Amino acid sequence: MTTKVFQKFDEELFLKILNTLKDPIWILDNKGNVLFVNQAVYENFSSIQIDELIGQNVMEMEERGLFSPSMARLVIEQKQFISTTQITQNNIPTLVSSDYIPDENGDIQYIVTHARELTKAFNQSSELEKIELILQRYKQQIRQLILQKNQQNEDFYVGKSKATQHISAWSQKVADIETTILLTGETGVGKTAFAYQIHQLSSRNNKPFIHLDCGAIPESLIESELFGYKKGAFTGANASGKLGLIAAANQGTLFLDEIGEFPFHLQSKLLQFLQNKTYRMIGDNQVQQADVRIIAATNVNLLERIKEGTFRKDLYYRLNILPMEIPPLRERKEDIIPLLNFYLSKFNKKYGRQHTLSKSLMDTLYHYSWEGNVRELENLIERLVITSDGPKIDIEDLPSDFPLQQSRQILLQNVEEISLPIYLEEIEKNIIMKTYNETNSTWKTAKKLGVSQSYITRRLKKFNLKISGKKLVEN
Description:
Blueprint: H1 2-7, H2 11-20, E1 25-29, E2 34-37, H3 39-44, H4 50-53, H5 58-63, E3 67-68, H6 71-78, E4 82-88, E5 93-102, E6 108-117, H7 118-131, H8 133-150, H9 162-174, E7 181-184, H10 191-201, E8 209-213, H11 219-227, E9 228-229, E10 242-243, H12 245-248, E11 253-257, H13 267-276, E12 278-279, E13 288-289, E14 293-298, H14 302-308, H15 313-319, E15 322-325, H16 336-351, E16 356-357, H17 359-366, H18 373-387, E17 392-393, H19 404-413, H20 420-439, H21 442-449, H22 453-462, E18 465-468, E19 471-474
Parallel strand pairs: 7-14, 7-15, 8-11, 11-14, 16-17
Antiparallel strand pairs: 1-2, 1-6, 3-4, 4-5, 5-6, 9-10, 12-13, 18-19
Helix pairs in contact: 9-10, 13-15, 16-18, 20-21, 21-22
């Protein structure tokens, strides 16, 4: 019955139906030549006239950079339904699905492709969440359980700032979206921890999370580490060959840290894997497939690397589908106290200690600039837990190379945030330094200030002061 009614549609009506659709529709022949596109296509390719598209080959258009990858090429190569993200000439990430209509022999006769901007796909997903509210509540509860469980692990990130909460919420939203993610930010901000959080929140959480630091492996070895090699592929190779990290991460997540350091001559091979999920091991002509979710991270400006000619533009757009910048720790100070407590607990447990941090030390570290970000904070707390003798770690326990003066200057500039004991200590320190530099004697300083000489000596140690020549200076 439906077929009979459909046959009554004339060609003009059928074209009106296709042009009514708001998503781009492409109809191609089995060689990838364009037979028809609906009106929505021209909104994405506004620089191309209608007559210019018909008859063009989409694989040639791919080579000209109008989009990447060509869905027709993937369907022709794999002869199956394909759904992936595609980058258009306007650098708009698009969710694209493509399938073929077979002829009587089962071969490809026509190819039909449907596209939707990723932002629109997100909006549609948001509407779907409203309809499936109960299901989403269950999913949210499950993810909260995962968060609570993993916050006890040393590799999980903690923080209370708006920036951190925003990134955590974003991580939950994108966790199950099967496309690449690019994390950016200064060294030590916690990119690895956020990548691991995304993996744990995804449906791949019970599969491998493989971390490759692209800047830590010699350029001559990174290809074999990532893609693996066959037996006898090169001199010195393992006699039985070696599986690469892509194979090790199958069905899981591969985290490519410091992607800006990835060798230029291998970037095309990485791009091929990102587009097709296929690769070749060194010394092997056989194409391998792997189901791997890619998360990349960098502390450099990749657009500058593109200008320098050391990073491929097409690889950047393939990686930059879901970008997220992680601010430095100095811009999210609300995270500092939770991080101090987190790492104190971690290293107390690791080294069998029961240290606490004094209020004055907490205030000092809160106002410190943390140029090395979370990694610097973690390393300092571990050092303090190891080297401190008493149960309470105080300012005098800080290592001699810690820039205490910088922290105190910042602290005094934010007097409204300082506790009264810390503020009074700063005043006392400045009075002692001023008096000593006038008298050049601890005995005369003590007499003038009405305290004992031993009191002044203890204060010099507490405030990390030393005598240099005839002046008292901060160590």
